[in-house]
Model the fold of this input.
Amino acid sequence: MTAVGVEDLVDERLLQGEHELIDWKAATNVMGENEEISTECVVKPKCEGISLDEWTLALQAIAQLGESLVENPSKDLDLTQVAMLKQRLRALDVGTLLTVRAFNQYGPKRLAAELKELLA
Done:
């Protein structure tokens, strides 16, 4: 209800002879008397519970992949894409982490191909 709507309601009650005073504190209390405002984040981030070691290992794997690209350029991935992937990991992108964890054991060529697909 808008402020104008409240004024109209009050005016109508007064005109009809209903002179009860409005308890504005009770009328405007939207949380209840005993409730406290919570500053805790209700929505948990997707990265919650993943250790920093796992993020670090994934970032190291991407860095090694970048170093191998300097010596042996690949059609799958270039250094700009490697920089983008490192940025995504630093922003705690879970999809990038999962891709690195899933395909790092298959070698740099497979990892590069999978990461390129992730960026597409």
In short: The chain has a mean pLDDT of 78.
